[in-house]
């Protein structure tokens, strides 16, 4: 005794109609799978491009951070040099005053020697 299959009671026309629907459904499924595969490939490509862009931006960020540290170091060095320049100006003025005083002292020394000779 054989068990009846669900399609055994269907007419040939119904079976043909169901076969066409099945073929159509399989074709649509195949088409959807292709679209999804293409979308997945596109999305992966976009993700790869974003990763590359991220790596590039990250490298640029590292370089900019190094440049910023260098700039800070140059600013500190510039401040130090400005302080030294100010000290140098002050010391040059002080030196000029000392030269004037030395000149005056030499004058008074020479004058004293003249007076000693005169009075001796």
Automatic annotation (TrEMBL):
GO MF terms held by the record: dynein light intermediate chain binding; microtubule binding
Coiled-coil region: none
GO cellular component, one term: cytoplasm
GO biological process per UniProt: cytoplasmic microtubule organization; cytoskeleton-dependent intracellular transport
Superkingdom, taxonomy of origin: Eukaryota
PANTHER family: HOOK PROTEINS, PROTEIN DAPLE
Protein name from the UniProt record: Uncharacterized protein
């Amino acid at each position: 005794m054989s068990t009846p299959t669900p399609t055994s009671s269907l007419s040939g026309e119904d079976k043909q109609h169901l076969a066409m629907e099945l073929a159509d459904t399989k074709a649509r499924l195949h088409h959807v799978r292709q679209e999804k595969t293409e979308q997945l490939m596109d999305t992966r490509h976009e993700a790869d491009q974003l990763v590359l862009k991220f790596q590039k931006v990250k490298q640029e960020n590292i370089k900019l951070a190094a440049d910023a540290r260098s700039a800070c170091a140059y600013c500190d060095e510039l401040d130090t040099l400005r302080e030294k320049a100010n000290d140098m100006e002050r010391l040059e003025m002080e030196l000029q005053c000392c030269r004037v005083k030395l000149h005056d002292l030499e004058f008074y020394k020479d004058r004293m020697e003249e007076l000693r000779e005169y009075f001796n």
